[in-house]
Amino acid sequence: MTRLADSSDRYGLVSRFFHWGMAALFAAQFVSAAAHWALPRENALRDTLWVYHVDLGVTLLLLVLLRGAWGIWNLSNRPTESGLMGHAAKAGHGGLYALMVIVPVIKIIGAAGGTRGFSYLGFQVFPARDAAIAWTNTISEWHGTLGWILAALVLGHICAALIWHQIIKHDNVLNRMA
């Protein structure tokens, strides 16, 4: 029987659901950002993908918070890595989690002080303002840059899993997350 909670030898069903579900949503989020950046303004694919960017970002933020709470609750039970790579893994995961919170939060702050307003799943959260609040726009400008740094950390996370765990250590860490 599959356990819901984590154990010292395997991540539980809830952690695996969060990990792989969020991985799929982040892939969609990065594809929408890449299309928005790379395709011309009047492109149907660019517009179609971009429509979901905000709702997907807020959904991911909520999932990150839930996943973080779940991870803290299971912290003493989780599989660990020791030594230098263990410290590197903790630092990498810390960076991932920090950016998974910071990137959407700064955009939400920017939207709260912006002229377009902010809605989530069709519900208005912040109304549009007549004039933007300058400091919220300044913060919001970091959203894209930090988002691409997050994407780079995600790629590093994938490479570490494949190269360190599968090729070098052969420790079946991917099986613990599958």
What are the key terms here?
elongated, 7 helices, mainly alpha, two-stranded antiparallel sheet, 178 residues
Helical residue percent?
A: 55-70%
- Please give the largest β-sheet: 2 strands, antiparallel
| Count of strand segments | 2
Which outline best applies? elongated
**Beta content:** under 5%
Measured distance between first and last alpha carbons: 15 Å
Major β-sheet strand ordering = 1-2
Q: Uncertain regions: pLDDT < 50 for 5+ in a row?
A: none
Task: Summarize this entry quickly.
The chain is mainly α. It is 70% helix and 4% strand. It has a two-stranded antiparallel ribbon with strand order 1-2.
Question: Any chance you could write out the topology, listing elements then pairs?
Answer:
Blueprint: H1 13-38, H2 44-50, H3 53-73, H4 83-112, E1 118-120, E2 123-126, H5 134-140, H6 142-169, H7 173-177
Antiparallel strand pairs: 1-2
Helix pairs in contact: 1-2, 1-3, 3-4, 4-5, 4-6
Q: Any overview of this molecule?
A:
This protein has helices spanning 13-38, 44-50, 53-73, 83-112, 134-140, 142-169, 173-177; strands spanning 118-120, 123-126. By secondary structure, the chain is mainly alpha-helical. A two-stranded antiparallel ribbon has the order 1-2. Strand 1 and strand 2 (123-126) form a beta hairpin. The model has no long low-confidence stretch (mean pLDDT 92).
